[in-house]
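Tutorial, part two.
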Amino acid sequence: MPLQRRLPKFGFSSRKSLLREDVRIASLERLVDTTVTVQVLRAAGVVAKSSKYVKLFGESPLTRAYSVSGIPVTKGARISIEAAGGSIEA
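Running the prediction step on this input gives:
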């Protein structure tokens, strides 16, 4: 059997994945403030302090109107946030 088939396989792991975190929009309900930034999420303990990049995803009904700024969101999260009366700023 050739050597490349006998050796254990390993591959590429991005260093950016160590600094990136995905957050469900349902976890926004734990926040006290209605403005959502990366700093607010870090302070509330929703994301790790080492996270540089955050993305909101998911579709769930929200009870409050949130103002999201500086965080990318998916299409489903955008629909849920705007349905609750919130806004998304780039």
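The chain has a mean pLDDT of 92. In part three we will examine how such features are distributed along the chain.
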